[in-house]
UniProtKB/TrEMBL annotation:
<keyword id="KW-1133">Transmembrane helix</keyword>
<protein>
    <recommendedName>
        <fullName>Cobalt transporter subunit (CbtB)</fullName>
    </recommendedName>
</protein>
<keyword id="KW-0812">Transmembrane</keyword>
<dbReference type="Pfam" id="PF09489">
    <property type="entry name" value="CbtB"/>
</dbReference>
<dbReference type="InterPro" id="IPR012667">
    <property type="entry name" value="CbtB_put"/>
</dbReference>
<feature type="transmembrane region" description="Helical">
    <location>
        <begin position="17"/>
        <end position="34"/>
    </location>
</feature>
<keyword id="KW-0472">Membrane</keyword>
Amino acid sequence: MSQISAPHTQPVPWTSIARWLLAVPVLLLLAYLVTFDQGAISQAGDYLHELMHDGRHLLGVPCH
């Protein structure tokens, strides 16, 4: 007779959760700045747009 054992689970440490809770908003803000910002958030004017222009088109994000 075989027994089915429950998988061993380990608790996720809070430091790992805290890193993700910090990393996700930072990555979303970075993605926004690279893809959609036209200077409204970054206050960089066209500098950031021109810096990321080719990357935007490579990702398929329209900017004009």
